[in-house]
C-alpha cells in the first residue's frame, strides 16, 4: 500500500516539473496586479489564465473580481482576442522561423558555393604550381645536361690541344711517320676506290648507250618493215584496181562487139528480105 502511495507521489512531482518546464506553473490567475503571484495583468506571469479552483475563490474573497454577465462577456472576448493574438504571433513567429531557415539555407548554399569555388581555384593553383614545378625540374635537368655536354666538349678540346702540343714537341718522330704512312695508304686506297667507281660508271654509261642504240635500231627496223608492208598493201590495191578496170573495159568492149554483131546481122537480114521481095 505504501509502495503504491509513493509511486503516485512520484508521478505528481513529474507532472509538476513538466508544467513548470512548459511555463504553466503556479501564479497564473487573472488579476491585474504586476507581481509574480496569482494576478495575470501586465506582470511577468505567462499562461492562459483560466482562473480555476482555489485561486479564483481566493480572488473572489478578496474582492478583486466582479461577478456577472458583463465580466463573463469581457472574459470571453478577451480570451478570443488573446487567442487570435497568440495565433497571429505564432504565425508571425513561424513565418520568421521559415524566413530565417530559408535565409540560413541560402547562406549555407552560398557558403558551400564559395567553398567549392575556393577549392576549385585552389586545385587549379595547385595544378599550375605542380606543372610549373615539373617544367622547372625539366629545365634544371636540361641545364645540367647542357653543362655536362659543354664540360665534355671542353675536356675533349683540352685533350686534343695537349696531344697536339706533345706531337709538336716530339717533332718528326715515329708517330708522325706512322701517321704519314697511314695517310698515304688511305689516300692510295681512296684513289683505287675512285678509279673503280669511275670504271663502273663508264661501264654503266656504255651499257646505257648500247641499249639505246639497240632500241633505236629496233625502232628503225620496225618502221622500215611497216613502210614496206604499207607499200606492198598499196601496190596490191593498185594492181587490184587496175585489174578490175581492165576487166571492166574488156567487158565493155565485148558488149560493144556483140552489139555491132547484132546490128550487122540485122542489116543483112533486112537486105536479104528486100531482095526476096
Number of helices: 4
Biggest β-sheet strands, sense, barrel: none
**Broad structural category:** mainly alpha
Note the gap between the termini. Answer: 203 Å
Residues in helices, as a percent range: over 70%
Shape: flat
Strand content: under 5%
Mean pLDDT over the residues: 77
One letter per element, helices H and strands E, the order comes to HHHH
> Total strand count, please?
0
Regions with little confidence, pLDDT below 50 for 5+ residues: 59-65
What is the CA-based Rg, rounded?
A: 72 Å
Can you put this structure into words, describing what you see?
- There is one protein chain.
- With 277 residues, the protein is mainly alpha-helical.
- The protein has a domain at 172-248.
- The protein has helices at 2-22, 53-62, 69-170, 174-276.
- The longest helix has 103 residues, at 174-276.
- The model is unreliable at 59-65 (pLDDT under 50).
- Residues 183-205, 256-266 have a biased composition (Basic and acidic residues).
Amino acid at each position: 500500500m505504501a509502495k503504491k502511495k509513493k509511486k503516485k507521489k512520484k508521478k505528481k512531482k513529474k507532472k509538476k516539473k513538466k508544467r513548470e518546464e512548459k511555463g504553466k506553473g503556479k501564479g497564473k490567475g487573472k488579476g491585474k496586479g504586476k507581481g509574480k503571484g496569482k494576478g495575470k495583468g501586465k506582470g511577468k506571469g505567462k499562461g492562459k489564465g483560466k482562473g480555476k479552483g482555489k485561486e479564483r475563490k481566493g480572488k473572489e474573497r478578496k474582492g478583486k473580481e466582479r461577478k456577472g454577465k458583463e465580466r463573463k462577456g469581457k472574459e470571453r472576448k478577451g480570451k478570443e482576442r488573446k487567442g487570435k493574438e497568440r495565433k497571429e504571433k505564432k504565425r508571425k513567429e513561424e513565418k520568421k522561423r521559415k524566413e530565417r531557415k530559408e535565409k540560413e539555407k541560402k547562406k549555407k548554399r552560398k557558403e558551400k558555393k564559395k567553398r567549392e569555388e575556393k577549392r576549385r581555384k585552389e586545385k587549379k593553383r595547385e595544378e599550375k604550381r605542380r606543372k610549373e614545378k615539373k617544367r622547372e625540374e625539366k629545365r634544371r635537368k636540361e641545364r645540367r645536361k647542357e653543362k655536362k655536354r659543354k664540360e665534355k666538349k671542353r675536356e675533349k678540346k683540352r685533350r686534343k690541344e695537349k696531344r697536339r702540343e706533345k706531337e709538336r714537341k716530339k717533332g718528326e718522330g715515329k708517330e708522325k711517320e706512322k701517321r704519314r704512312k697511314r695517310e698515304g695508304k688511305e689516300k692510295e686506297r681512296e684513289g683505287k676506290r675512285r678509279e673503280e667507281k669511275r670504271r663502273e660508271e663508264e661501264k654503266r654509261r656504255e651499257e646505257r648507250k648500247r641499249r639505246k642504240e639497240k632500241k633505236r635500231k629496233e625502232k628503225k627496223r620496225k618502221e622500215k618493215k611497216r613502210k614496206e608492208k604499207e607499200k606492198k598493201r598499196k601496190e596490191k590495191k593498185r594492181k587490184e584496181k587496175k585489174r578490175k578496170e581492165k576487166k571492166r573495159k574488156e567487158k565493155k568492149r565485148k558488149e560493144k562487139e556483140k552489139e555491132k554483131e547484132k546490128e550487122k546481122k540485122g542489116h543483112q537480114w533486112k537486105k536479104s528480105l528486100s531482095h526476096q521481095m
